[in-house]
Specification:
Radius of gyration: 17 Å
Largest sheet: none
Helix content: over 70%
Number of strands: 0
C-alpha cells in the first residue's frame, strides 16, 4: 500500500489502517505546495498583462482536472472533487505568493 505507509508502520509502529490514513493525508497535503508551485511557474511564464491573473487559475484547474480524471481511470487510485478543491487552494496560494513577490520586487502593485 505504498512506501510511505510501510515506513510509517516500521518507524512509528502504526497499525496498517493508521499508516494508510496518515499516508493518504500527507499525500493530499502535498497537493497544496505542488499546485501552488505550478501556479507560480505559470505566472512567471506568462506575459505581465492584466489577463495573466485570469489565465493562470483556469490553466492550473485544467491540469488538476486532467490529473483527477486519469486517477479515476486507474483501479488502484481514485479521482476526487475534494482533491480538485485542494489543488485549487494550492493554486490560489501560489497566485497570492506571485502577487506578493511582484509587489516586493517592484515596490508597487502586481500586474
Amino acid at each position: 500500500h505504498g512506501p510511505l505507509a510501510g515506513w510509517l508502520r516500521r518507524e512509528h509502529g502504526m497499525t496498517k489502517p493508521e499508516a494508510l490514513e496518515w499516508s493518504q493525508a500527507m499525500q493530499k497535503a502535498l497537493h497544496i505546495p505542488a499546485y501552488a508551485l505550478l501556479a507560480l511557474l505559470l505566472w512567471c511564464a506568462l506575459p505581465a498583462t492584466w489577463r495573466r491573473l485570469r489565465l493562470v487559475l483556469p490553466l492550473v484547474l485544467v491540469v488538476a482536472a486532467i490529473d483527477e480524471s486519469v486517477q479515476a481511470l486507474n483501479p488502484a487510485r481514485n479521482g476526487s472533487v475534494v482533491d480538485l478543491g485542494i489543488d485549487a487552494v494550492g493554486a490560489v496560494l501560489g497566485l497570492l505568493v506571485a502577487r506578493w513577490l511582484c509587489r516586493a520586487v517592484s515596490g508597487g502593485p502586481a500586474a
